[in-house]
Amino acid sequence: MQHKCKVTVIDKKLYPELQQRYCADPQSGPCPCYNVGDEFVFERYGAADDFWHIGAGTLRTPGASGTAGGEGLAHCSEAWDAIARYIYTALQGGSIMRGWMNDERVMIACCSDGTRPVIFKIERLDYKAVHVPGLESAEKAASLSSALAALPGVSSVAVRAEEGFIEVYVDGTVPDEAIRAAVPEAVRID
């Protein structure tokens, strides 16, 4: 089983009365680093290890270059301090917040900026990497994706043809035997 971590900006707050009273720039406004809807996907597979690069280049929102994580930029240090431990836990396959959230794979956290906090949803994404030769064929990739998506417990499927595997995202336990039955040409399942 492999793990990724998806971080989504779900809200931004602004307290102008606090900025007026305490900030050197009383008109500093909302956080310029993040936008509601921004998504950052952290992974540790092969040569990829986004966590140790403070999420540089993880932004997955089209047209949002220049914000945290985009265009090779690292995350805001205030936000990173607040969310890094949850990201690392998710990448290791651990429980992000057992007993506090209704799903231990999810955590809601915010940065420590008291006048303009950003609120993040941090999710552990569990998947199995199914290595299959010949994924460069679009027809074969589509056929295998459909077969895997039809398995009970599979939430989504993503083909990574350039790396030679298919990511099979699972909500629960999907036995390797079920994956092998759906894709007999699989040479390895991680």
Automatic annotation (TrEMBL):
Taxonomy of the source species: Bacteria, Bacillati, Bacillota, Clostridia, Eubacteriales
SUPFAM superfamilies linked to this entry: HMA, heavy metal-associated domain
Protein name: TIGR04076 family protein
GO MF entry, a single one: metal ion binding
Signal peptide: none
